Fold:
Amino acid sequence: MPKVVTAELIGAYALTEPNAGSDAQGGKVKAVLSKDGTHYILDGTKMWITNGGFADYFIVFAKIDGEKEKFSAFIVERAWEGVSTGGEEHKMGIKSSSTRMIMFDKVKVPVENLLGEIGQGAKIAFNILNTGRFKLGAGALGGAKHSLNLATKYAKERKQFDTYICNFGMMQEKLAEMALRSYAIESVIYRTAGLIDAAIGDEKDSNKRLKSIEEYAIECSIIKVMGSELLDFAVDEGVQIHGGYGYSQEYAIERAYRDSRINRIYEGTNEINRMLTTSMLLKRGMKGDIPLLKAAQEVGKEVLDPVFDFDEPEGTLAEERMVVQGLKKAALMVAGAAAMKFGPKLESEQEILARCADMAFLVYACESALLRTLKLEANGQDIALQDKMVQVYVHEAAEKAMQIGREAICRFVEGDELPVYISALKRFTKHTMRNTIALRRDIAAAVIEADGYPFKN
Ligand SMILES: Cc1cc2nc3c(=O)[nH]c(=O)nc-3n(C[C@H](O)[C@H](O)[C@H](O)COP(=O)(O)OP(=O)(O)OC[C@H]3O[C@@H](n4cnc5c(N)ncnc54)[C@H](O)[C@@H]3O)c2cc1C
Structure:
């Protein structure tokens, strides 16, 4: 372990196989105990293994005797007889990382190199993915802010029609949108990091520490999807701001564009993470781990029997606070009604699972950005800029939630019930019109002034 920590030894995580990607436990790599019981014989092929060209050891996931219940993890050294690798994959991006196929041909793995216990492979694999997803999302946020910085610098240097392109409204809108989405997702990441830290506390027992991280598996999936989609958005707009030069390898944004794309694919594709978000939420709700059922039942009553609150909201971002409460109700209504309608068959209603996940993302991001801004204000900071970002983000979220929710509802509500649900959705996503164009111009002015992302922490 000390050599792993100092990177004198480099490791690799070998889960994927040529025919088992998203269905990670559907692989064929097999381990069979030797007759004398001293070692396992490992056979099979792993695919797309990062660090494959130079890793000293691999954490290899394999089925003992080919049995799914005995899916286990092994520490396998590169130097051992029977371990070989394919050539380097020629990838679209992240070219400085090594990606290879790894072959195991009757490799003798000592029994003491079984990691954990027989049958614990999935637990080990998925716990690694939880933290991996968190880190991927946080890294992607860093990439998005970097792309914003590159784009801002370029927009301040490039002149067309005798003026710097950063003076054009459509360029400003892109810069503002990159900045405000980054702020929202940064808030999600800080919030979740704080929650995980608090859950781990001073715990020394590694199993309990893992359990605390597992508690936040849903949030890790959300961060993975939101972070990777933010980055794709930022690099795409970054290239656009660079015009033809963005398409040239001489400019860093070209590489950022290619490097970004992988993030929606590995650590569980975004489709898989969307499904996981909704199914984990529903499962935990059914088990009573989170008070989802009660909340959904209460919203269900409100669908049929509207509650009209005529109190005018007051204070900082009062309107947005109200919208976030409404968005939660909208998400609960859609997920609750879908769960009632389809029961266990909801698993095969993937489009609805994805829409429920998207609504959960919007709720979590809006609420996180809002709470962070209110906390900054309570700490005496000037929040004029953050306030504007939250206004735009929440406004857009309410519009998106209306559209996503409507599509989901139309899939499974019919007849007289349909207008009842649609009108409830309208109530729950109600928001005051904002001059979002003017707000984005103000945000862009701050971005241009700061040469990029306007917040340092
Ligand atoms: C550069 C790179 C580095 C990688 N590094 C590693 C590594 O270090 N270790 C490792 O183990 N793996 C690694 N991977 C593998 C990566 O995790 C897989 O590529 C990924 O999980 C997707 O699997 P797949 O490529 O087989 O795609 P598939 O699973 O075949 O998916 C193809 C498409 O079908 C969709 N799909 C699949 N199942 C479903 C479903 N049930 N419902 C709806 N849609 C579905 C997917 O979302 C995707 O859009 C790496 C991959 C790449 C490209």
Remarks:
- The two ends are 33 Å apart (CA to CA).
- The beta strands are 11-14, 30-33, 39-50, 57-64, 71-77, 83-85, 99-110, 114-115, 159-160, 163-164.
